Sequence to fold (159 residues):
Amino acid sequence: MKGTFGGWRRPVLAVVGVVAAGSSMLLSAPAYADHTPPAASGGVQFVYAQPEVAADRDHVIWHWTLMNNGQEKASKVTLIQHLDPSLKIDTLSPGCAAQGPVIKCQFDQLAPGDQQQGFVGADLPTDGAVTARINGRVTWQQGGAPDGTYIRPVVPVHA
Fold:
């Protein structure tokens, strides 16, 4: 699933940094944090909302929205997400599975205008400072043939 099938690609990255030992935390919202899709010529895209970091800074949840902005049904929709560094993933949306730092979410189809929402929850190390990143890409088919890959633009979130 590495490559672009006649579509276009842009990287996505949501970052959260956590520093232990009582320092203050500052979060800045990523672009599209309100789940508003970027302007596009169609196809399947996704956005991350600002991550939720627990008050004791030991857990983070990333929420995402996957949407079909195209005029045709998208089938075999697959969202692949990667955590860096590898964190213990403890909660996932239905339809998603984790293997190490990689999360794979699969959907049979998305009709034009349809959306799927989901989340990834992970434990953060408590022994010092960490910057945790999540990035992802989505692939899909239209009309039975591989059609596109969408990789979100870099969207940092600092804590």
Remarks:
- Residues 59 and 123 are 4 Å apart (CA to CA).
- The first strand starts at residue 13 and ends at 18.
- The radius of gyration is 16 Å.
- The chain has a mean pLDDT of 73.
